[in-house]
Specification:
It comes from Soehngenia longivitae. The protein is of the alpha/beta class. It has helices spanning 10-25, 40-48, 66-84, 96-107, 130-140, 149-157, 171-179, 189-192, 214-229, 243-253, 267-276, 286-293, 308-313, 323-335, 337-344, 355-368, and strands at residues 2-7, 29-34, 55-56, 88-92, 111-115, 143-146, 165-167, 200-205, 233-238, 259-262, 279-282, 298-300, 316-318. The protein has two domains: 3-169 and 353-368, 3-Layer(aba) Sandwich (Rossmann fold); 189-345, Rossmann fold (3-Layer(aba) Sandwich), CATH 3.40.50. The protein has 16 helices and 13 strands. The longest helix has 19 residues, at 66-84. The N and C termini lie close together (11 Å).
Length: 369
């Protein structure tokens, strides 16, 4: 069996790394190809997990559009797929690289395995372009590796064959086992000085395209109000490199000594920061899965989420983007011990850390037949 893995961004690399390691462990032939849709943040993860790509398309360009990414990834992947002719091409998630990878494999009649299949927000423009990418990818996929039962049900409602869908858990939980350490020491000067024992540290991440602008201003204003009223609360915000995100963050949070704006963190320090935080406030999809595995309540600052399992389980709460909603929900979670304990102790619905083993088992079983 020859397996080709394709990824292009940091989140894809994080979630694909455990599968690559499992393939290595079982000595299964594999070809690793990165598009480098993102460059710097992708390289950090590749180095952390000691992954050595066989092909690096290096398509990243400043100011690139979605069309640029699609065309350049598709052209580069076509050459690699035609040369390697794998038995299956594995892609993960919902980026433009994922859709381009599926299309490149389809054009060569190569089987496709979609890791983290079946996520749906049912709003084609939120998240954008991810909702469209995952739906388009699903049409071309032969093996749908769905993290949860509800992901499987989404695919069944759309008419996919039940025999092509496999519930595996999410590989991001597998990845946490590699990185979170009880004795971890932060190298960052700001993080190394934080009193995690006596402060309620709020880890904030925000970068979604659909939130940038007025919605982000409302979110940040709500967070600022809550922190100003809860004296032992502080915010750590690794600010995304997007200039518009940085401008809004610096303007809204300026001169507040309890809100720390830091540079984007590599994956290992980031997961260890999350493990030591009190609450996670995020518009990220992946953090909605990771934080519950660490017992951290999540406030989701989006208008809808394709990860309803966390909401249903009680590990996460969808609070929207209006200032008053963000403020009220964050302040309540900071001050209501009963509510906090209920969310922190809820069962993580995203798996047990063995998703990569299940995926490789399925590949061995199905492709051998």
């Amino acid at each position: 069996m020859k397996v080709m893995t394709v990824f292009g961004t940091r989140p894809e690399a994080i979630k694909m790394a455990p599968i690559i390691k499992e393939l290595e462990r079982r000595k299964i032939e594999q070809v690793i190809c990165v598009t480098a849709q993102h460059r710097q943040m992708l390289d950090q993860v590749i180095n952390l997990f000691e992954i050595k790509p066989d092909y690096d398309l290096n398509i990243f360009k400043e100011g690139q559009t979605l069309t640029d990414i699609t065309i350049n990834a598709l052209k580069g992947l076509e050459e690699v797929v035609k040369k390697e002719l794998p038995d299956i091409l594995l892609i993960q998630g919902d980026t433009t690289t994922v859709f381009a990878g599926a299309l490149a494999a389809f054009y060569q009649k190569i089987k496709i395995g979609h890791v983290e299949a079946g996520l749906r927000s049912y709003n084609l423009y939120s998240p954008y372009p991810e909702e469209a990418n995952r739906k388009l990818t699903g049409v071309l996929t032969n093996f749908h590796f769905a993290p949860t039962l509800s992901n499987r049900d989404n695919l069944l409602r759309e008419g996919y064959d039940e025999k092509s869908i496999f519930i595996t858990g999410n590989t991001v939980i597998d990845a946490l086992k590699y990185t979170v350490k009880d004795d971890y020491k932060f190298k960052d000067e700001v993080l190394s000085q934080i009193d995690f024992e006596n402060k309620k540290v709020i880890l904030l991440t925000s970068h979604r395209r659909e939130n940038i602008g007025e919605k982000m201003e409302h979110i940040f204003s709500g967070i600022k109000r809550a922190v100003e009223e809860v004296k032992d609360a502080i915010v750590v915000f690794p600010v995304h490199l997007n200039p518009r995100v940085r401008e809004i963050a610096n303007r809204v949070f300026k001169e507040n000594e309890d809100i720390y704006l830091v540079e984007p963190l590599e994956y290992e320090p980031f997961t260890n920061l999350m493990a030591r935080s009190f609450i996670v406030v995020t518009d990220s999809g992946g953090l909605q899965e990771e934080a519950p595995a660490l017992g951290k309540p999540v406030l989701v600052i989006r208008d809808e989420t394709e990860r309803p399992e966390g909401i249903s389980a009680g590990t996460a709460k969808l609070v929207g983007t209006e200032e008053e909603n963000v403020y009220k929900n964050l302040k309540e979670l900071l001050t209501d011990e009963k509510l906090y304990s209920k969310m922190a102790r809820a069962v993580n619905p995203y798996g047990d850390g063995k998703a990569s083993e299940r995926i490789v088992d399925i590949l061995l079983d199905k492709l051998s037949k």
